[in-house]
Design goal:
4 domains, Rossmann fold, 12% strand, flat, alpha/beta, Helicase, Ruva Protein, domain 3, 14 strands, single chain
Length: 462
């Protein structure tokens, strides 16, 4: 089912004053702002001042006909949808109108249901194009940034990034998998005095345990089977720059000890070597795990934790920054469409709804994968909802619940907190809530709450 578009500004031009009046009244009854013109020249003057969301034009008019007007509009705003109407319906006229990029062609007399359907589709497309323009403008403004965002949660994080980037202190990033911790690390590096130095990222959980030491600390030739040449390791390779240790909690305990020594002394000894090499690095580490639980379980060294956890920053999940979903989705769409040489403008209205209602348990990484797949599967100018794959983890909470569900959830939570704070005293709870006792009882029955579940022993109502 197609969603209702927002109320629109619609211009109508027709040389029949009676038809113009009737159509204008019907459009206004549908909630739209309507401006009517009985001369195309007057319409052209208005179009130069302000664009509508939709133009409805008669095809046969004196002085300037609908096809000439369509061509004139196309030169100024090719995306503006134009519906052409005529009492002289014919196949040649229809073909010419569609070749002129008219959105639709309707022959008088038409059914209002038919016009409404075409208008709704045209307005959704126009609104989609306007939204895509706004998103692309925002993307261009942030072209030099490591991260795209417009949410307050990300702005607060980036304010922290700006503050800590100029220091030499170690930064510890926490957050869900796929939330963008590596991009935040790159943003810190790019804004730091080390920006001209190397930025090296390593996923500690993805390195096999038997080669992790060599990858990090390097090795000398002949130190083990297969060591056919000296290898400096990532720590030495990051000298003068930043080393990003992603999923640092997966680092084996023996390597945690060796890493701590490097951070304390500023020197590294490769596997099988006798010589130590000075290193000047800034370490940014990250994990999606509960680091405090790992400390309690003895799976992460406390002394290393304090070396790494000097400045803690938390990267918000995509569910905490839903304002960024469409911005990121448009960015991924444009990138993939360019790579595949596809002419895809944006997401259809139903696809936008699906993107906003999805839970995104995989965060930005999942969004990127979903959009990449949608672009690959779509042959249309607008990504349809059917191209947006369903989440494989349906138990997660969507970014936006239905309004009725959100209200019910808030209402139940409010009642529980209210009754808990008043120990189930209905009279007191009703006074605080500004409701009658009977109203409160009705709400409690609605949410299946009982006063005895909130009462302390011996509590009586007053």
């Amino acid at each position: 089912m197609r969603n209702e578009p927002e109320p629109a500004t619609i211009y109508v031009v027709d040389d029949d004053p009676d038809f113009l009046r009737v159509l204008g009244l019907w459009l206004e009854s549908e909630g739209h702002q309507v401006v009517t013109f009985d001369h195309p020249a007057d319409l052209q003057k208005q179009l130069d001042k302000r664009l509508p969301d939709l133009l409805i034009s008669d095809l046969r008019m004196p002085e300037i006909d609908g096809m000439e007007l369509l061509e004139w509009v196309q030169e100024r705003e090719p995306d503006l949808p134009v519906l052409l109407l005529t009492a002289h319906g014919s196949i040649p006229n229809a073909v010419a109108a569609m070749r002129g990029n008219a959105f639709a062609y309707l022959a008088k007399p038409f059914r209002y249901e038919e016009l409404q359907e075409q208008m709704q589709a045209a307005l959704e497309q126009w609104q989609g194009k306007q939204e895509s323009r706004r998103l692309r403008a925002a993307i261009r403004q942030q072209a030099n940034q490591s991260l795209l965002y417009r949410s307050r949660a990300m702005q607060e994080l980036m304010d922290d990034v700006t503050r800590v980037a100029g220091t030499q202190a170690s930064v510890f990033l926490s957050g869900e998998s796929g939330a963008g911790k590596e991009r935040v690390a790159r943003a810190i590096h790019s804004a730091s005095p080390r920006q001209t130095g190397p930025f090296l990222a390593i996923n500690c959980g993805a390195i096999p345990a038997d080669v992790a030491e060599s990858e990090l600390f390097g090795h000398v030739k002949g130190s083990f089977t297969g060591a056919t040449a000296d290898h400096p390791g990532l720590i030495r390779s990051a000298h003068g720059g930043t080393l990003f240790l992603d999923e640092v909690a997966d680092l084996p305990l023996p390597l945690q000890v060796k890493l701590l020594r490097v951070l304390q002394e500023g020197r590294v000894r490769p596997v099988g070597g006798r010589e130590e090499f000075p290193v000047d690095i800034r370490v940014i580490s990250a994990t999606h795990q509960d680091i405090h639980a790992l400390l309690s379980a003895g799976r992460f060294r406390e002394d290393l934790y304090y070396r790494l956890h000097v400045i803690p920053l938390r990267v918000p999940s995509l569910a905490e920054r839903p304002e960024d979903i469409l911005l990121l989705a448009q960015h991924f769409l444009d990138r993939e469409a360019s790579r595949l040489q596809r002419e895809i403008q944006g997401f259809a209205s139903e696809a936008v709804d699906k993107l906003l209602q999805r839970a995104w348990p995989g965060n930005v990484r999942e969004l990127e994968n979903v959009v990449t797949q949608a672009v690959a599967l779509s042959n249309e100018n607008w990504i349809p909802a059917s191209a947006i794959s369903d989440s494989g983890r349906g138990t997660s909470t969507p970014a936006f619940a239905q309004l009725q569900e959100a209200k019910a959830e808030f209402e139940r939570d409010y009642l529980q907190r209210l009754l808990r704070s008043t120990d189930g005293n209905i009279s007191r709870a009703a006074r605080i809530a500004g409701r009658h006792r009977t109203d409160l009882y009705k709400l409690m029955r609605k949410h299946q709450l009982r006063t005895e579940d909130f009462k302390d022993d011996g509590e009586t109502e007053s």
